[in-house]
Amino acid sequence: MLRLEDLRVRVEGKEIIKGANMEVDRRQVHLVVGPNGSGKSTLALTVAGHPAYEVSGGRIIFEGRDITGLPPDERARMGIFLAFQNPVEIEGLKVLEFLSKLLEKRTGEKPLTPLREHVMEFVRERIGEYLEALGFTEEFLDREVNVGFSGGERKKFELLQMFALRPKLAILDEPDSGVDVDSLNTMGELLNRAVSEGITLLVITHTGGLYRHLKVDRVHVLYGGRIVASGGSELFERIQERGFEVVVG
């Protein structure tokens, strides 16, 4: 589904990704791990098409198509979704209205009227089970997007957006940051279900808190801007025990 070929990325003139090669197959869970400053978030934002991240070399191939030069909105329409490490606040936009617009884009349907009860019914019919599983109440839906949200609420809301959009590839940047143990278990169950239903996951993680709740197919170690090792879940276990020196010497 996704292939990075000698990818090189500059941010404000500084090369952060220095020749990364990686392949991600359909309906799999791939982890990208590495120490702080290794380029994990840069990699995620570049695949999603963030304009501040300049591809200075190499290619990004998605479903056989070179998307290296495509803008982020076109990549999103192709089925690429990014859950941000630090989601932005959007004052004045209610969560319910935001979710309704996402569902309209994906399904081509609209609520019967703009009245709140009709918008609520529209959203609940389509993602109600995910609202409940992630612990979102009706009061939460009336809050402004990410305004005053805790770290865990922001992360769970990003996942809710993913379930609304049903992308082909979901890139999750540090989805376990600030999330409590019980929520990690719920998130893991929902993400494993998403993969069984056809969503491919590329999970960027530093702490690995979500790792034991996911059925991981492949682990990639990003170090110094390069993928220095790839392997099965046993690779992550070794890193957890001994640190990154097991792969970088």
Question: How would you portray this structure in words?
Answer:
By secondary structure, this protein is of the alpha/beta class. The protein is 39% helix and 29% strand. It contains nine helices and twelve strands. The strands form three sheets. It has a six-stranded mixed sheet, sandwiched between helices. A hairpin with a 2-residue loop joins strand 4 (54-62) and strand 5 (65-66). It is globular and about 60 Å long. It starts with a strand and ends with a helix.
Topology:
Blueprint (H helix, E strand, L loop, with lengths): L1 E10 L2 E11 L4 E5 L6 H9 L5 E9 L2 E2 L5 H7 L1 E4 L6 E5 H13 L8 H18 L4 H4 L2 E2 L5 H15 L3 E5 L7 H16 L3 E6 L12 E6 L2 E6 L1 H10 L2 H4 L1
Parallel strand pairs: 3-10, 3-11, 6-9, 9-10
Antiparallel strand pairs: 1-2, 1-4, 4-5, 7-8, 11-12
Helix pairs in contact: 3-4
What's the gist of this structure?
The chain is of the alpha/beta class and 249 residues long. The chain is built from nine helices and twelve strands.
